[in-house]
From TrEMBL:
GO molecular function: metal ion binding
Organism ancestry: Eukaryota, Viridiplantae, Streptophyta, Embryophyta, Tracheophyta
Highest taxon of source: Eukaryota
Location in the cell: Membrane
Biological process, per Gene Ontology: response to stress
One Pfam family cited in the UniProt record for this chain: HMA
This protein's name: Heavy metal-associated isoprenylated plant protein 20-like
Family: Belongs to the HIPP family.
All residue ranges annotated as the HMA domain in the record: 22-85
Any single Gene Ontology cellular-component annotation: membrane
Keywords: Cadmium, Lipoprotein, Membrane, Metal-binding, Methylation, Prenylation
Amino acid sequence: MGFVDYVTQNLGSRKKKKRKPNQKVEIKVKMDCDGCERKVKNAVSSIKGVKSVEVDRKQSKVTAVGYAEPNKVLKKVQSTGKRAEFWPYVPYNLVAYPYVAQAYDKKAPAGYVKNAAQAFPLAQAPDERLTVMFSDENPNACSVM
């Protein structure tokens, strides 16, 4: 490495800021009318780093895509006077036991359940061991079946 290479690499270059990753922030906000929807959309779109804002009034959901911090987006929505929280729901088909006590929510939009700790059956349970013993997915299963 020569002197010219050293100067161009170390002295000639400026520090580059690391860019935050592009992320999707989903927030649950109760909106009643077009005015509420417009107020929330304008507040979120004014945040530096937000590229697009989608508002779904039927599901009470606001989705912001961009480089903004999730907490910053939440605070901005709350500053409009609306009660807001991060989107607490996941799609129904991604959950193993959707009707566990904490997951099933009557207020959830269609096709969604609350994101709660799931009650998985214990692998040591005798009935679970018997069903796994004759399973096609178990490589050590009984070959008689």
